[in-house]
Amino acid sequence: RSSLVDAARLGALAPKRSAVRCGGCGCACALTVVEFEGSRRFVSGNRCERAHAFLDGAAAGAGSSADRRQVVPRRDAGRAPNVVALERKLLARFGDVAGAGPRAEARVGLMDALNAYENLPFWHTLLRELGFSVLMPRRDEGVAAAEGLETIPSESVCQPAKVVHARFYDLAGRGARAVLMPRYERGSRCPVSSCYADAVRDSVPLVHEGAVSLVAPTLGAVRPEGIACSEADRAELLASLGRIAPEGAPLGADELEGALEAGLAAQRAFEDAVARATERALAWVHAVPGRHGAVLAGRPYHVDAALSHEVDGVVERLGLAVLPPLGLAGRLRAAREARSGAAWPVSSAGALASPPWKPAKRLVGLARFVAEDPSLELVCLRSFGCGFDALGADEARDVLEAAHRSFTVLKIDDIVDTAHLRIRLRTLAEAVEARDLRVAGEGFSDAAPARTTGGEPAGLGGSAETAVAAGVEDPSTPALRASAQDDKGDRPCASSRDGEGAVPLLGRIGRADLERARVGVNPDVCHTVASLAGRAARLVEADPSVRRLSVPRVCERCLLDALPRLVERACGRAVEIEWEDAWPAGLDAPAPLPAPADDDRPRIGILGNALLCFDAYLNDGLVAFVERLGCRAVLPDPANLFVDDVRYGAQLDAFEAAGVDHVVYLQSFGCLKGHVHARGALHEAARRHPNMPVTVVDYDPEASALNRENRIRLAVAAAHQARAKRPSGA
Q1: Burial 315-335 (b: 16+ CB within 10 A, else e)
Q2: Is a pLDDT exceeding 90 seen at residue 135?
Q3: What is the CA 174 to chain-centroid distance, rounded?
Q4: What is the pLDDT of residue 445?
Q5: Could you tell me if 256 and 132 are in contact, meaning their C-beta atoms sit under 8 angstroms apart?
Q6: Half-sphere exposure of 532 toward its Cβ, with a 13 Å CA cutoff?
Q7: Region labeled Disordered — which residues (predicted)?
Q8: Average per-residue pLDDT in the chain?
Q9: At residue 300, does pLDDT exceed 90?
């Protein structure tokens, strides 16, 4: 007998249709809901499963917005421990606190972002023990926070840096007269996470006007133990905090020592609690076959609720235990000691057997720990546009692929639609289940190819064969060499062989070098470093006897330090780099056309790193273009460009002395130091050189050349107007 309903029942159907705006997330999908009798409901227009949870919560008339965002559970939902959530709750205990004693009137805001996030117990306890009243930023986006977002100097800076501005204004709006945000000596650290206090000082009007004092001691150590052990760091803290202490309550060295000890004790208690919870979670994973855990790797501040988009909750509801890197610190130290001197694994994408790039060592350690435990997976969180995160993820991928393990990387930042994050994580959970079945012998083959979830393809950093497979000709082929010559770029020609010294890398960069970079270099690496890496890869591939390259250090202590590793990843061969601290003497910088003595044309200064300023292909022939527009191009002194501070103050002074009317600052897209110093310092440059405006132009092969040209035309037009208004003979 047919189970289809008859005509009478069909005629009796009375579906109710309604249009609802989903409140499950910020996407606010327009839902069409059709309800039938018997609580049957059909939903369309939704882009994820949150719509069903939202409608269930609305029908019940109860439940918070977080309750309505549940992901359909898998495995042992509700039973998997989430240590990342515990870490976040422990940090949330450090809230506002009123001071005691004569310093209670000093209300100090504590910036809980970037490198200070994980060390919040130390800094909070330190200020409290010294008697200051402590204010912590709120997470809600109020009017003050929105005002703070307007002061962000660079729209392409990562979201962890952007939240600093919102939190700064929140603290100021609630009465903080000083905000503590330490800056750290760079070394090999990320410029943004270490020195973003400089960007706040340069770009936030509240600091310029003196309404709020920015307390930014420069410290050599990031970890509290290192700060307490460093005499220089203690002296810097004493001087910085002493400046905000009331006149009648000066800060003494002995008092600071006691507060440091209390801060260290609070930090140790916090870390011990996280470590114990992590050990319990690992025990839960290993107690029953088939249970798994996920290490939520990334930078310490990526677990901030404002940045993580509930990724840990999604992983937990998929039935995997969620483990933070902080809780594994002891195990990682023991693992490093145990494998001291052991060879690095070889990636399936190429023979990358040399040690990883130094800033990636923490993430690589986590990857190796996960690779040795089949019950664990690695979920890597990274920020959009962060070259440091991108290269670290590549290093972790090498380790996991060598062990035939999956690798999941999630780009998180200021995003509203998080469906792709949940899809990636569900894919990971299904891959884990499939692997368990294969191990159990339930119809799966023994082959275990490495699988990459998210990020760039696993073979991106392969050798020349990878380039051919991707549809790009190998740089050593005659066709591509001709292309390089057509673009007026030098064909890689090694004038030195093994034992004959370093081969100069620079010549005239052309399109072939950039095409090689597109194939073999991570797209989040800045334009300058990618260009050099592409050229180096072509040179090494064209002449396998090349072992050493001579490269000018056009950018100090940033992604340029990763050039040897990038070249090895691109072509599968390790090369040594000999750094030069000056522009090569034999490589002439382009000079503008000779100007007559009575030349009254507007003068346009060209500023930026030396490679962009002096290589005509990379800057789109800027010198000739400026000359065609009726201006005189003024090139910088190369000696003023080989500095770590990309404000280039000495060169700006030289431009002003030379009568420059307008400066065009050339910046590589993705330049991390530019986010911190260059753009934020434009306000200071305008105050220091009021008659010499600065226009920043981003250079990137994917960006529109027309947009760059229009910005330069506007700068030239402004220079013409300024010159026309200038008194005769001035």
Answers
A1: bbbbbbbbbbbbbbbebeeeb
A2: yes
A3: 30
A4: 44
A5: no
A6: 29
A7: 445-500
A8: 81
A9: no
Per the structure block, which two tokens stand in for 298?
A: 């990334």
Instruction: Write the CB contacts of 501 (distance below 8 Å, at least 6 apart in sequence).
Output: 548
CATH number of 94-270: 3.40.50
- The structural domains of the chain, with segments of one domain joined by +, span 14-69, 94-270, 271-458, 462-580, 603-725
Distance CA 560, CA 529 (A): 6
pTM of the model as a whole: 0.80
pLDDT tens, 391-430?
Answer: 888 889 988 988 889 889 988 877 777 778 888 899 999 8
Q: What would the two tokens of residue 386 be?
A: 């962060």
Do the beta carbons of residue 686 and residue 575 sit within 8 Å? no
| Superfamily designation of domain 603-725 | Response regulator (3.40.50.2300)
Distance CA 658, CA 469 (A): 52
Within this chain, domains 94-270 and 603-725 share the same CATH topology: yes
| pLDDT, average across residues 673-690 | 78
Contact assessment for residue 200 and residue 235, using Cβ atoms and an 8 Å cutoff = no
| Chain centroid to CA 687 | 30
Instruction: Tell me the average pLDDT across 652-674.
Output: 88
Least confident of 207-211, 437-441, 649-653, 710-714: 437-441
The yes-or-no verdict on residue 54 having pLDDT over 60 is: yes
Q: How far apart are CA 707 and CA 695, in angstroms?
A: 13
Please list, in sequence order, all residues whose beta carbon lies within 8 angstroms of the beta carbon of residue 651, skipping any fewer than 6 positions away: 605, 607, 636, 637, 640, 641
Buried b or exposed e, range 490-501, using 16+ CB within 10 angstroms: bbbebebeeeee
Interval 227-234 mean pLDDT: 95
